[in-house]
Description:
2 copies of one chain form a homodimer.
Chain A: E1 4-8, H1 12-24, E2 28-32, H2 35-45, E3 49-53, H3 61-71, E4 76-81, H4 86-94, E5 99-102, H5 107-125, E6 130-133, E7 136-139, E8 144-147, E9 150-153, H6 156-167, E10 172-174, H7 175-182, H8 188-204, E11 212-216, E12 220-224
Helix pairs in contact in A: 2-3, 6-8
The structure holds a DNA duplex.
Amino acid sequence: MKVKILYVEDEPFLGRIVKESLETRGFEVKLVADGALALTVFNEIQPDICVLDVMLPNKDGYTIAKELRKLRADVSIIFVTAKIQTEDLVKGFESGGNDYLRKPFSMEELIVRINNLLQLAQKNSKSKGVEALGKYEFDSSKYELRIGQTVRKISHREAMLLQALIENRNTSVTRKDILLKVWGDDSFFNSRNLDVYIAKLRDYLKEDPSVKIITLKGVGYHFSAS
Amino acid sequence: MKVKILYVEDEPFLGRIVKESLETRGFEVKLVADGALALTVFNEIQPDICVLDVMLPNKDGYTIAKELRKLRADVSIIFVTAKIQTEDLVKGFESGGNDYLRKPFSMEELIVRINNLLQLAQKNSKSKGVEALGKYEFDSSKYELRIGQTVRKISHREAMLLQALIENRNTSVTRKDILLKVWGDDSFFNSRNLDVYIAKLRDYLKEDPSVKIITLKGVGYHFSAS
DNA sequence: TCAAAAGAAGGTTAATTAATGTTAATGGGA
DNA sequence: TCCCATTAACATTAATTAACCTTCTTTTGA
Lengths: 226, 226
């Protein structure tokens, strides 16, 4: 499958050249000229990489980046800017950018940096969609948990929770973060709800003892799986 | 502990300025002017980040990078170069570089990119492995303490405390440092709490008398283990 | 100067409280 | 109705607090 790129750029001439140039190299590029549209298009095409101009009408690149990160923590973001102020650079990395390119840039440089990020992303998350969890496989788009021949459909909440754990695999997540991500708020009742769902997941995942959800009492959970 | 940087640069004037500038920001910088020396110095100081000029006498930056990667796969490498040819950029990433900076660059830009790589590296290597403590083995990501065939699950606090001791193995830690690290504050009650947990760890570790938690009354503890 | 007394710091074990586990009952929407 | 999310009820475990004990240090007075 082609690598999808969301390219947000308001200069039409530059935009078209870069888009075509990237397409020649086998990327699938969606060009958006208006910052306010970026999120909508992002949700539509689910790109692997976002290339964002910083100066944009309606909504600047940094703001977009922050919003994108919330939607998908693992998306790769490259900023492109004519500004050379270093505070912008700082802002760029702070708002969740993975790389920063100054205009004018060469196509080769952009492509190299794109490829670099793709490799990184691949290392971090293998082939997305289907996650290997020990002997299990979790298909986050189908809400399916497979082990051997057995397929178990899991519910929306179960899937969200499992996803949240997977995103923090081999590190710890706080209960609060999970609650905010999965339930949207961390009230007392939702907190007990989380306990219930953890129990369910543990039950689903009990066939492979190497897949573990360890409780960090007073803190959160630590999910580990090969 | 300070972040250590190996900086290979043959222009003495630039080298000194960058070195001093980085040191002002709290980095520990070793400046090397000769490519052929880079490896030796690398082994000596075990840096967290390497900043390599590409054009160097005796051995160029790309070659150095490849060799460094062989020595330590997880080291972060930033190339710095006056060349603007894009083939160099490609070569840079291919030879194992993590980032590429064109001269002239601003200090801020360098620092931002350094910090970015540090964060990345931390994410990747977070769940570090298994510590040998005399006859025991402590797996900090699984919260397991093993001796012979016996595996004991320990709690989060127990693990944090043990980790804090291990990090200061064969030296002394103050109670205050431990309390801040494990409990977040050093109030009276938490201080007594620490006593309780020290007792637990001593109990867990009593099978091997060479593993010792020695009390330094009025100061802290001294943890020793082969 | 020295021994006894008083304190302080920490050791140990037990009791208490808070957090989470588990299973079942309830309730609401396609 | 059926499924899933939520709430409830009771069980379990970890963390904290308490109580009492031991050890070392400091103070004090003969």
